[in-house]
Structure formats: C-alpha cells, structure tokens
Amino acid sequence: MKLIAKLFAVLSVLFAAQITSAQSHYPNRPVKILVGFTPGTAPDLAARILADRFTDVFGTPFVVENVPGAGSNIATDRVAKAPADGYTLLMGGNASLVINPGLYDTLPFDPLRDFAPISQVFIAANVLAVPPELPVSSVAELVALARAEPGKLSYGHAGVGTSQHLGAELFKSMAHIDIAAVPYRGTTAFIPDLVANRISMSFANIVNVMPLARQGKLRALAITSIRRSALAPDLPTMAESGFPGFEAVPWFGLLAPAGTPAEVLDQLHGQTVAALTMPEVRSKFDELGLEPVGDTPAEFTAIIRKETPEWAKVIKQAGIKLGH
Q1: Residues 92, 95, 99, CA angle at the centre, nearest 5°?
Q2: Looking at the structure, do residues 183 and 110 belong to the same domain, yes or no?
Q3: 324, part of any domain
Q4: Distance between CA 248 and CA 226 in Å, rounded?
Q5: Do 164 and 137 touch, CB atoms closer than 8 A?
Q6: What DSSP letter does each residue of 279-319 carry, written as one string?
Q7: Residue 3 pLDDT > 50
C-alpha cells in the first residue's frame, strides 16, 4: 500500500507539472492584434500578413481586430490597459505613439510607460510631388519659387497630424518658406486637385504618387525616408536634396502591454523578424509600398523616445493643437 501511495504521489506531481506546463505554454488560446484603422489600410493589411504567419507557426489563431477612431488613440489605449499576458497586441503607428503626445493636451496612455515594443514592422515613404504645370524640377527650385512668391503656393494633406501634414510643416520650417495648408479627408481626396494644379504640392504616399508620375500626371521631386526606395530608386531623398536629417514617414510596429513576460516577447519578436525576412512576405509588402523593418525591442523603443520630442517641436512651431 505504501508503494502504491508513493507511486500515486509521484504521478500526481508529474500530472500537476504537465498541467502547469500546458497553462504556461504561449499561446494556448486566440491572440488579438488591434489596429486603429479600418480594414484595407496599410497597418491592417500588414497585421493580417503577420497574423496569418503567426497562426501557422504557433498553431493558435491570431485575429486582427479593427478599432478605428481618434487618430488610433482608442485602439492604443485599449491595448495599454489590456492584461499583460501576450493575448492582446497592438499594430501601433507613429501617429498615436510619437505624434499625438504633441497634438493632444492629455492622452489616456503613455507610449513609453504603457507598452513593451516588440519590433517595428514597416515604414511607408511619402513623396514630395508637384503638378507638371509648376515650373520646378527639383526641391531646390521649389524652395526658390516659394521664397519668391511667399504665401502663394499651397500643399494638400490627408488630415491634421498625418505624416503628409507634419512632413510639409517640417519642410516649411527647415526651408524657411511660407506655403498654405489645405486639409482633405485622406490622400485619395487631394490627389485629383494636385493633378489638376489646384494645389501646388503634397507629400503623398509613394504608392499613390509614382504611377501618376510615370504617366506624366505628376512630377516627383524627392522621397521622405532616410534611404531611397526600391519602388523609385532614382528618386533622391529629402536629405540628398538639401535637407539633412529630414524624415517624415508613417511607420508601424508590434507592441504588447508593459509587463508582458519576457519569454512571450522573445517569441513574438523572433517570429516577427523571421516573417519579415520571408520572400513571400516581402513580396506582399512591396506590392503595398511598404518597407519591412524587423528591428529589436531596444531599437524600436529608442525610435519612440527620439521622435516624440522632435515632432512635438514641429507641432509647437506650427501652432497645431487638437485639444483633449
């Protein structure tokens, strides 16, 4: 009987250990990736590409949930307040993480305190474009024209606080020019006016600009990323065009709530980087005009820390405010 009792005790310990192991195995239930934009947008599509890959690798569903609104602040806040267990993730962009802190008097979350960055996923370069009728063929000529006719030239943008808006304000500040802002409801709304020469210029997404530029309907002058793009390798950067350090691109990355276990973050980081190196994933990103990144959590954190005060300065100089 004593032997049976001991055997039962050993089996009980082993069984308990197996249960604990099963409970601690990540993931053992569906994982949500929240996106603060509508379906079909770049962050939504990128999140779905990663979710499909994660589902295959982990054998557990990764589901994208769209929570648009308030410049993606709603989705960002929801993840900030979610349990730190790795089952609620954010495909978060520079709008909510580094730009909105300068636009809003208060935010319900702290980008640096409330999140555990996993990896930056992609950047989507903008292009400074002008109508063919505008008598300029370079950024330098555009600056010269703007200085010669202060206040007469205008730029279109996709909404207050967007990369197109702040990129143009950064350009104004660095070039010391006076150009008027014309807001629209998204990029597709201002492109027709740009083609028709009703506005003088815009920083628009490379995917929207380059097909029209190749057709002669727009003239592309420079790209807003630090490096040239494979989608337009002959197009110089703004830095190469006389504005060192100029960078104004939408970017997105994967984040978890602060306090998420390190082993969970390590798994997610490893699989994110692995996915972004896969030829089929890179091909899908190329089609969308997205440049995959795949950096470390420390590098991603450093980007958030660096860019927040930089954009706050641009926003303050331009006198932009969205209130609460």
Answers
A1: 130
A2: no
A3: no
A4: 9
A5: no
A6: HHHHHHHHHHT-EE----HHHHHHHHHHHHHHHHHHHHHHT
A7: no
Tokens, residue 100:
């909105």
- Which three-class secondary structure state does DSSP give residue 82? coil
The β-bridge relationship of strands 291-292 and 115-123 is antiparallel
Question: 18 or 295: which carries more pLDDT confidence?
Answer: 295
**Confidence grade of residue 224 (pLDDT, cut at 50, 70, 90):** very high
Query: Domain boundary residue among 223, 242, 259?
Result: 223
| Residue 79 vs residues 167, 232, 252, 298: alpha-carbon distances, Å | 28, 36, 15, 20
3-state secondary structure of 13: helix
pLDDT digits (tens, 9 = 90+) for 168-205: 999 999 999 999 999 988 778 899 999 999 999 999 98
In the chain, DSSP finds a helix count (H) and a strand count (E) of 12, 11
**CA distance linking residue 297 with residue 101, whole number of Å:** 21
pLDDT in tens, 157-171: 988 888 899 999 999
Q: Give the residue numbers spanning the domain of 204.
A: 126-223
Torsion on CA atoms 207, 209, 214, 216, rounded to nearest 10: 160
Q: 293 with 253: CB under 8 angstroms? A: yes
